[in-house]
Design goal:
Length: about 325
């Protein structure tokens, strides 16, 4: 419990301060010596954080979904291991983003149709050159020095960027039905004026791993272009995104299990009715007339139910059936 000074002690203390016999700075240092540096937090009044933690977590989930989708696409196109993960989500001035852009760079400006604003997809030039090289059958990471893309390389990579923007649009639909359209390609950040220099932007950074090479990819959104969408970001939307991810995971697992399930398939070439006497008198070489003509369709049964109709024949020296139509009477 703190000691309470008497009036006489207070008077003598004040008199000592006036006469200079009491060091005021020492008493101040002692009063704050018990507080650690961790209690003091810096705050930048020029750059207040517009987004809450819940909003940031939702944005994290949205762009992780985008990263998973585009990485699966690149695996199929490049026929090699590809991994894309969200490295960070930051809020900073647009001028700071422009200063961080390398020269040369690969910048794809795309329009957010609903707000008539623009955003930027920034690709590391070495990442683009590696993708182009791999698509043409070459190695990854062969060119160590960034350079400008040729017209042929721009044409090759444009399909990849259009798919990336399409997948980004699908990921954002969990929050809002936005439409993204690629407008132009630039090589220098100074020519990409999508926001005032003092405007706060949302910068999503990705780490792209292709084979054993690592590259960076960034997406820049001006916050004024997404004001309504960012206002709707809350825990509820994050939970819905998590649930959709869970459902998607279960769907993929079930689809794989179903694809591995075997089903009995049989083809009925025809039916015939015989008496017991006719059956007893059958000998090798006899011909049984069925209810299906030579040019008629045969029944293709799956698990005992007729699902298709086809015509028998020979394929690669083996007996086969060509599917002609589906049995619409079976559900």
């Amino acid at each position: 419990m703190a000691e309470i000074l008497s009036q006489q002690e207070i008077d003598s203390l004040l008199a000592g301060i006036n006469s200079g016999s009491v060091d005021v700075s020492t008493s101040k240092d002692n009063s704050y010596s018990s507080k650690s540096d961790k209690d003091i937090l810096t705050f930048d009044f020029r750059l207040p954080h517009r987004l809450s933690k819940n909003q940031m977590r939702t944005l994290q989930a949205v762009h992780e979904s985008f990263a998973e989708t585009i990485s699966s696409f690149l695996i199929n196109r490049l026929q090699t291991t590809v991994s894309i993960s969200v490295a960070s989500i930051d809020q900073l001035f647009y001028s700071e983003f422009v200063l961080s852009i390398g020269n040369p760079s690969c910048l794809y400006v795309f329009r957010i149709v609903e707000s008539d604003a623009f955003a930027v997809l920034e690709l590391n030039p070495q990442l683009v050159l590696s993708i182009v090289s791999r698509m043409l059958g070459g190695p990854i990471g062969e060119e160590k020095t960034p350079r400008l893309l040729t017209q042929i390389e721009q044409t090759i990579i444009r399909g990849i960027t259009q798919r990336a923007i399409s997948d980004l649009q699908k990921a954002w639909k969990t929050i809002a039905p936005l439409t993204f359209q690629i407008e132009r390609y630039e090589t220098e950040g100074e020519f990409v004026q999508i926001a005032p220099a003092s405007e706060i932007i949302l910068l999503v950074s990705f780490e792209v791993t292709i084979g054993d090479q690592k590259f960076m990819m960034n997406i820049c959104f001006p916050t004024f272009a997404l004001e309504d969408e960012l206002a709707r970001l809350n825990t509820g939307s994050m939970n819905s995104i998590a649930m959709s991810h869970a459902k998607k995971g279960w769907s993929n697992t079930m689809a794989k299990k179903i694809a591995q399930t075997s089903l009995p398939v049989s083809v009925v070439l025809g039916n015939a009715n015989l008496t017991v006497k006719e059956l007893a008198e059958l000998t090798p070489g006899d011909i049984i007339k069925t209810n299906i003509s030579a040019n008629g369709e045969v029944c293709v049964d799956i698990s005992g139910a007729t699902r298709f109709f086809g015509k028998p024949g020979v394929s690669n020296g083996k007996v086969a059936v060509k599917i002609e139509r589906t049995n619409t009477n079976v559900h």
